[in-house]
Amino acid sequence: MKIDRVETFLVPPRWLFCRISTDQGLVGWGEPVVEGRAEVVRAAVDVLAEYLIGEDPLRIEQHWQVLTKGGFYRGGPVLSSAVAGIDQALWDIAGKAYDAPVHALLGGAVRDRVRVYAWVGGDEPGELTDAVSAHVEAGMTAVKMNASGVLSPVPTRAELNAVVARVGAVREALGDDRDLAVDLHGRATFPAARMLLPALAPLHPLLIEEPLLPEHGDRLPELVALSVSPLATGERLYHRSDFLPALRAGISVVQPDLSHAGGISEVRRIASLAETHGALLAPHCPLGPVSLAASLQVALSTSNFLIQEQSIGIHYNLGADLLDYVADPEPLRIVDGHIARLESPGLGITVDEAAVRKADRSGHAWRNPVWRHDDGSFAEW
Ligand SMILES: [Mg+2]
């Protein structure tokens, strides 16, 4: 079997899919994307495709090595995401070739269903408690929220109180039997994070995400020392070597993104590295159905898995949503806050190719907003 074509599709709301076909008719789907830079990743996939044409798609690890290292320059969001989507598509083909779901090829399922959480609120959390009630009614057992909008470098007492009040309102609506994850989104400076972590601890967060920007990771040990809440990071880390310092710093939860951190192959290794540090896996996934399916395959076969992000109804999904691109939504249906084990060969979903091709004709040009402080200076989004 040989790879004969690699195509990419720029689809709303902000995603990029890739389709790898073979001379024997098997097709695999992947989702190589950096949110806001989808066109750049598309160009990277086009370049990597030069190597793939004519290759045996089942030699996934060999291709991963060549694709990540063979261009001499390596790593970073764009190249790692391009490889990630290709890697997902190759695993999809492998599963179909061996007539097995990917989790079976990874050693078999270690769980019967995968716990997922839902997002509440947007970038500027507002009517949060109604959203929480809707999720509770739908059976969700965990939600995640942004703790703040624009955050001053040293927050005022009022800002600090507002963050605690906002998170507290969600905790109140959620009750004590469900979990609340809090995302700082890299918006906090080190002094702000030092103030926020003890203030949020009484609300018992499941995790506090990106308490610092990745480039300030060398200060994580100081935050770990003062936080009783589990600290999480990793949506902006792309390789196990990026995760090692964070794990040595003592973070509790790693959050690699299946579409950024080298795909199924590398996230499995990141999970294993986390396991050796006693840390848990909670993959980042505010993305589309292919990335979610790849995440679920890893969750199903990884012992130190905690919880999975998914984007159904997320605030970014304007104009299109996750289930618009699958022929059958049933495998991704959330029941009692969980998605059941995927049983179909490959990634376990059927991409609606006609819908994808149609959506690509209009494409998208999604960009994240650029935020400013009151004085006009740049603020982290
Ligand atoms: Mg996040």
Explain what the structure shows.
With 381 residues, the chain is an alpha/beta fold. It has 2 domains: 3-100, 2-Layer Sandwich (Enolase-like, domain 1), CATH 3.30.390.10; 103-346, TIM Barrel, CATH 3.20.20.120. Helices cover 38% and strands 15% of the residues. It has helices spanning 38-52, 60-69, 76-97, 102-105, 128-137, 157-174, 190-200, 220-226, 240-249, 263-276, 289-301, 353-362, and strands spanning 3-11, 15-22, 27-30, 113-119, 142-146, 179-183, 207-209, 231-233, 253-254, 280-281, 308-309, 334-335, 338-340, 371-372, 378-379. Strand 4, helix 5 (128-137) and strand 5 (142-146) form a beta-alpha-beta unit. The longest helix has 22 residues, at 76-97. It is globular. The mean pLDDT is 96. The site of magnesium ion (MG) has 5 residues, from loops.
